[in-house]
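Bumping my old thread because nobody answered last time. Still need a sequence for this structure:
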């Protein structure tokens, strides 16, 4: 049907852009367009229908959302405002797209560093310097070396040239920072310049600002956080996940736990909704459901049981259907069609940024969701994290802090599969989050960094053979609930201990 539509448009001299192909993935849009082709309508009319149909669906969803407010509260009180949801179709990769992608990332992070960079100059102006002047340069790390005398040499690159920056163990604070750097991150270095070498004295990261006052909601409500459901695996903890859903419905748990469920307004699910198919070697031996559509069908049945006064925000992970390259688009409608029709469900991209609990008097909380596919790389390649004394499963909070300091979810290009966007780097952390939630590592943890609450979510799947091979020891069935009025966390444990 899709091929017939595209052929008809081309035959009638209409340009079929990638966004048209992406929108034709929607079954309703596809049917409407196919009917118009059958009626031999004008190509321009078909294009207009394809472009406007999804907008109408979104408007209908918002109307239904208002009509379905069961608890009679002010509709805006617990609204979800989507600040970032990546919707662009997959772009063709070429040298130019990568060049623009890295240039834009450099400019985005340079803006954060410039206000703190005294006597900042471009790298090309250092080429002919002979006097020992203290200068600051901002550059992307193109190479990193450790000399025989344990000095760190970073090759920094900006849009005008490259220079080597030398970090000596004599300056321990700056030296430790340099040892923790990774390729492709953007930093500023202050030091003494001599010809083609910069003797580093100080280094700065883009960082998130220090906030001395923790943001709190004027009214009591809870946001809960889970990830890595992995439905379809024969290691999926079906009874425990069912108890979690029953708890949200007020049908399970202690009186204290039921009180939290009653006050829960938001449920965040940070990726890996299903086990997927063919994700790792011999996975089929650990699957109970081998059909990806059936995996999503059962997941949908669970989510539909969640009371409609709870907003459910869902992003994909590397086990989910669709492309693995980040940013990942939302789960396609063909897999979870029934969830698209529910007004309290928000299916978003990975990563995504939303604002919750905002009122006329309160600006609300910015929640950044990222599944965390890049976390394995930084657990292994950042010295202070690798040597922290923590096993790889216990390092997600350290990685989250590291990424907040870099203002990027995957600063090293090889740390995750990336879909380069030549217009703007979608993995750049532009808005400082109040809450930063990730999954992937399967370990439950809560921490705070400069006023940002860091949450790592646990798993609903027992340890697989693949996880065991890489040293992942999952934390099971832990739901993290944050009281938005006090910002205090509560962990509700649904694991059935034998």
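Sorry it took so long. Here it is:
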């Amino acid at each position: 049907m899709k091929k017939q539509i595209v052929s008809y448009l081309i035959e009638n001299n209409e340009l079929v852009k990638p966004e048209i192909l992406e929108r034709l993935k929607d079954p309703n849009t596809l049917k409407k367009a196919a009917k118009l082709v059958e009626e031999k309508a004008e190509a321009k009319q078909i294009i207009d229908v394809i472009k406007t149909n999804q907008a109408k669906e979104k408007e209908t969803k918002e109307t239904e959302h208002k009509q379905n407010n069961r608890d009679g509260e002010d509709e805006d009180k617990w609204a979800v405002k989507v600040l970032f949801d990546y919707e662009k179709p997959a772009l063709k990769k070429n040298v130019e797209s990568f060049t623009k992608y890295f240039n834009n990332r450099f400019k985005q992070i340079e803006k954060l560093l410039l206000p703190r960079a005294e006597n900042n100059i471009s790298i090309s102006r250092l080429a002919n310097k002979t006097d020992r002047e203290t200068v600051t340069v901002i550059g992307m790390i193109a190479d990193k070396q450790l000399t025989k005398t344990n000095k760190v040499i970073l090759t920094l690159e900006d849009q005008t040239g490259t220079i080597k920056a030398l970090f000596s163990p004599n300056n321990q604070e700056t030296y430790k920072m340099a040892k923790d750097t990774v390729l492709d991150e953007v930093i500023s270095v202050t030091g003494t310049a001599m010809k083609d070498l910069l003797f580093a004295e100080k280094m700065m990261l883009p960082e998130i600002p220090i906030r001395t006052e923790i943001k709190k909601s004027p009214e009591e409500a809870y946001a809960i956080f889970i990830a890595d459901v992995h439905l379809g695996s024969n290691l999926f903890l079906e009874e425990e996940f069912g108890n979690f859903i029953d708890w949200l419905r007020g049908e399970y748990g202690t009186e204290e736990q039921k009180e939290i469920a009653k006050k829960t307004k938001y449920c965040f699910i940070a990726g890996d909704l299903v086990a997927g198919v063919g994700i790792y070697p011999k996975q089929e031996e650990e699957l109970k459901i081998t059909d990806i559509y059936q995996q999503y069908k059962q997941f949908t049945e669970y989510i539909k049981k969640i009371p409609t006064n709870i907003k459910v925000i869902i992003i994909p992970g590397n086990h989910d259907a669709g492309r693995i390259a980040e940013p990942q688009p939302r789960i396609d409608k063909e897999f979870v069609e029934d969830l698209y029709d529910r007004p309290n469900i928000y299916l978003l991209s990975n990563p995504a940024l939303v604002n919750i609990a905002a009122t006329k008097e309160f600006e609300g909380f910015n929640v950044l969701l990222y599944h965390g596919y890049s976390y394995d790389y930084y657990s292994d390649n950042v010295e202070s994290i690798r040597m922290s004394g923590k096993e790889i499963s216990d390092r997600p909070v350290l990685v989250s802090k590291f990424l907040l300091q870099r203002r990027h979810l995957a600063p090293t290009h090889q740390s995750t599969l990336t879909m380069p966007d030549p217009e703007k780097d979608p993995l750049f952390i532009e808005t400082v989050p109040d809450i930063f939630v990730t999954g992937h590592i399967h370990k439950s943890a809560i921490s705070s960094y400069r006023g940002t609450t860091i949450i790592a979510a646990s798993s609903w799947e027992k340890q697989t053979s693949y996880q065991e091979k890489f040293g992942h020891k999952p934390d099971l069935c832990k739901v993290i609930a944050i009281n938005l009025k006090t910002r205090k966390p509560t962990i509700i444990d649904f694991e059935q201990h034998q």
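The two ends are 52 Å apart (CA to CA). Let me know if any region looks off to you.
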